[in-house]
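ok so i was messing around last nite and threw this chain in just to see what happens. nothing serious, just curious
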Amino acid sequence: MADRAVIAIGGNSLIRDKTKTTIPDQYEAAAETCRHIADMVIQGFDVVITSGNGPQVGFILRRSEIASHELHEVPLDYCGADSQGAIGYMIQRALYNEFNRRGIERTVTSLVTQVLVNADDPAFENPTKPIGSFMDYETAKERAEKQNWQIREDSGRGWRRVVPSPIPKEIIELPAISALNKEGIIVYAVGGGGIPVIKDEEGNLVGVEGVIDKDRASSLLASSMGANLLIISTSIEQVMLNYGKENEEPISKMDHMQAQRYIKEGHFAPGSMLPKIEACVDFIKNGGEMAIITDPPNISRALRGETGTRIVEGWATPPAPERR
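result:
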């Protein structure tokens, strides 16, 4: 049986810099990442791909706001669905073309994915995830009153809407993802962490205004599928201790208990590296063999142990020595 891997691509990794935000620019970035994913497939990995969608949802919301004098605005859960389709299309086409260049026949597909969250998740009482356009205070206040938004000042850059980021509990389309994967089809799913949904009193799904962390959702997907490997592809080659300080140092390998200690010591920034480390730790705790954090160009080298940061299972106490 081939190793099964879930690889999570950051939504920001599709936008290399502020001068390259167009759809063709994003496609080129996706195509570069897909070359490294194709290398994994050739090595024998059964791959499922996920991604972030923060910038893309921001663009959809902005277009919706600008056009609101003429067209209805797009609800946030539908923004998530729209972005899943668009990013999935980029990855499907880029991987197809990469396989075609290499003379390989493989099928790639995308699945619009809903992820169940608890209706009583504390995040709904404390929205923290900024989305959409920056506004001055008066505009933000007016929209908050009119549309029942929560707003917050964002790092001195202006006021923004904030929404909940609930914990993912169940991937609704997991049976379909698993079935496609078992047939050798490469699947893009759980885009942007999945579309957050809750169940009503009759068990029907209802979309909610929120954003699920894509690393947590990717970890849940990997655990639920029984994957051996979780790769979180981000903008850095290796995770750093004491990041940004004179004594910063790269981490090549740590067990999940070391990772938890580093979390308690405050080495990883909330909203940045912290959720990635927490997602990796959860994956290992739930039976995963290894998690890797690295940037797209170094995925193959990280798989060989030459770079990246590996997180593996640790021991509460040292294992007993083998009897001879």
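not much to say yet. Residues 256 and 281 are 5 Å apart (CA to CA).
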